[in-house]
Amino acid sequence: MPSGQHSAQTTKAGAGLVLGLGCERRTPAEEVIALAERALADAGVAPGDLRLVASLDARAEEPAILAAAQHFAVPAAFYDAATLEAEASRLANPSEIVFAYTGCHGVAEGAALVGAGREAVLIVQKIVSAHATAALAGPATLRAEKRIQAAEAV
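Above: the chain sequence. Below: its structure as C-alpha cells.
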C-alpha cells in the first residue's frame, strides 16, 4: 500500500470513479450519503460506476464516511494531508480555510484525485451540504463524454 494511505477491505472492483468526501465530525450519515448521491447524479453515472470512497486520514473512523462506503458497497481509502496537498495544483476549489484546519487545500477534491490516480480528472468539482463536501474523479474520457452528451442535448 502506498505511503500515506490507509484502506478498508475491498468489497468490489468498480469502473474507476472515486468519490472524495469531507465532513465535520459527527455529520449524520444520511447527509453525507445524500450529497454523495447528488455528486453521482450530477455526473450522470450510476452508483455501480463507483470503485472507491476516499477522504483525509483524520476521518478514517468517521461513521458518516464509513457509512457512505458501505452504502455504495465500495472500499474506503484515507490519505494523509501531505498526500492530498500534493494535488493542490489540480484542485478546482482550493481553500485556505480548509488548509488552516487540515494541512491540505482540499479534502473532497484532493482525495478523489489521489484515489483515482495521476491521469484522473475531476468529473464533479466540490459540492457542499451543511456539514460535508463531495467531489468525483475519474478518467478524462468520462468528462469528455459528458461534455459531448451535454452539447448534443442542446
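The chain has six helices and six strands.
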